[in-house]
Design goal:
- The strands form two sheets. Strands 2, 4, 5, 6, 9, 10 and 11 form a seven-stranded mixed β-sheet that branches.
- A hairpin with a 5-residue loop joins strand 5 and strand 6.
- Helices cover 3% and strands 52% of the residues.
- The chain is globular and about 40 Å long.
- By secondary structure, it is mostly beta strands.
- The longest helix is centred in the C-terminal third of the chain and has 4 residues.
């Protein structure tokens, strides 16, 4: 079965940067939309960013202008570059993949990564 393996989490001071990666193991359709979600303690999982097969991107308002998402299809990898991090960005970040489009990935996720902790200190 398809597995999404994440890496790159860690601890960073506010204003710093961090990059996450997510690599798919097993068959992954090149046309799948890829994305990132996060879940802070005591809160529900929320959408962060998505990228479709055309390179189109969509970001949550909370991270727009600070985060960027990219993908490298030959290695079946997606990335989340996080800049100007804030304490409120602290969460477990999950990569995801699904057959829907940019604005429907929230409802059409088929595969989830295992999660990686991002902690931003003030």
């Amino acid at each position: 079965q398809v597995q999404l393996v994440e890496s790159g989490g860690g601890i960073v001071q506010a204003g710093g940067s961090l990059s996450l990666s997510c690599t798919a193991r097993g068959h992954m359709f090149a046309s799948y939309t890829l994305g990132w979600f996060r879940q802070a303690p005591g809160k529900e999982r929320e959408f962060v960013a998505a990228i479709d097969w055309t390179g189109g991107r969509y970001f949550a308002d909370s991270v727009k202008g600070r985060f960027t998402i990219s993908r490298h299809n030959p290695s079946h990898t997606e990335y989340l570059q996080m800049n100007n991090l804030k304490p409120e960005d602290t969460a477990v970040y999950y990569c995801a993949a699904g057959g829907g489009g940019l604005h429907t990935i929230v409802d059409t996720v088929e595969f989830w990564g295992q999660g990686t902790q991002v902690t931003v200190s003030s």
